[in-house]
Amino acid sequence: MIQEKVPYKGGEADGYVIPLGPVNLVVVVAKKGMVGCGAFDVVALDNFGYPAARVKPTRGSSIANVEDLLTGEIKDANAAAAKLGVEAGMSGKKALDLL
For 20, 75, 80, 94, which has the most beta carbons within 10 A of its beta carbon? Predict the structure, then answer.
């Protein structure tokens, strides 16, 4: 697992890259919520009132690292994240800044 600090509008978030065979599980956890790759079930996290959004890649076929996550595009966000202003189509970085 790789862990890195990710600067954003709210301070410093924690980024994680977890190798899972041929793919990586990638997420950045901020003070109010998280932005993750497509493997995360943001609807399930909404059941706990936890703001979460999934990112689709804008370069390449998958999210491989934190940079891909931040430059990717929000595919969907749960209701808790939407209340904070996160919406489909914005960049992962812009969504992170709202969390």
Answer: 80
Q: Which amino acid is at 61?
A: S
Model's pTM, two decimal places? Answer: 0.96
Closest CA to 54 of 21, 11, 45: 45
Q: What is the mean pLDDT of each run of 10 residues along the chain (99 residues)?
A: 97 98 96 97 97 96 97 98 98 98
Closest to 78 in 3D by CA, of 53, 57, 55? 53
Give CATH superfamily name and number for 2-98: Hypothetical protein YunC (3.30.1980.10)
